[in-house]
């Protein structure tokens, strides 16, 4: 999908280094079954496209920036994120940064204070506006970084500014920023009507949804300023430390097809090696069709969805009920025969 080279020699070296790394103090949970496919044909050794966890991680470890596109409420996807963070952290000797859509730039000082142990978790949560699913889905990432001294960048625009764009206009939002607020918003943004706009309109229900073109335009501007702010946040990390890779956690829409935040990062740092991963929950690994859309990402990782294995449970329940009914019928027949005797 993107113009990137996978270097086997570098991957082998990283793998060897990982094998000699000290044992992890607390191995993150992550025993979910996975199916990983390289949608970029150059990244796979086999026509099937399926790749091992080791090869997948080795490729990610050779990247400058890795995007993990999630479905925000999917449990297994978040467990994979923790596994990836752990693997990359040890392969880079903890010299990487985590950047997150889920925290906004104006809470960076609070986030840093918590990571340094200067405030407790109660104070951190009170002042950082965490997402409702923070405890189960994002806390493990933050606690991991806190334990190992990994910096975390609050990358998103404060939601009140994005809301201002959606309700009024982009120029009005920029015009009302104070000197203190200015660093919390991307210095520049564009909102051209390209493939990303088409995807956005479809995600919003299409032009038949009843929204006017003007409303669509404002909502799209708000979406774009989020993407540019997150892209700029990643670029700032890379500019400050070109040798420090970045793992970025975001909703999949912001990175699918190499658009959104990905495209805007590449505009800022075209030489960076960027790898895009789409995490997708499924109810079964039967009938997967990863190559229906090769442009989706560099990798697609299928994880157990909410109904994972439900067909098996239902089948077992039906079989148990049938066996119980048969046993009851047999017992009734035996009783009838006994009464006749």
Would you identify the CATH architecture?
3-Layer(aba) Sandwich
- Tell me the count of domains: 1
List the secondary-structure elements in sequence, H or E.
HEHEHEHHHEHHHHEHEEH
Rg, please?
A: 24 Å
- How much of the sequence is in beta strands? 5-15%
User: Helix amount, in percent?
Assistant: 40-55%
Biggest beta-sheet profile: 7 strands, mixed
The average pLDDT is 86
Name the poorly predicted regions: 1-29
Q: Which fold name corresponds to the CATH topology?
A: Rossmann fold
The number of helical runs is 12
Question: Judging from the principal axes of the Cα atoms, what is the shape?
Answer: globular
> How many beta strands in the DSSP annotation?
7
State the CATH class. Alpha Beta
Query: What is the terminal separation in angstroms?
Result: 79 Å
Give the structural class.
Answer: alpha/beta
Strand order of the largest sheet: 1-7-6-2-5-3-4
Which descriptors would you attach to this protein?
341 residues; Rossmann fold; alpha/beta; single chain
Description:
- This protein is α/β, with parallel strands linked by helices and 341 residues long.
- It has one domain: 3-Layer(aba) Sandwich (Rossmann fold).
- Helices cover 47% and strands 13% of the residues.
- It is built from twelve helices and seven strands.
- The protein has a seven-stranded mixed beta sheet, sandwiched between helices.
- α3 packs parallel to α6 (134-148) and α10 packs across α11 (261-268).
- It is globular.
- The relative contact order is 0.17.
- The model is unreliable at 1-29 (pLDDT under 50).
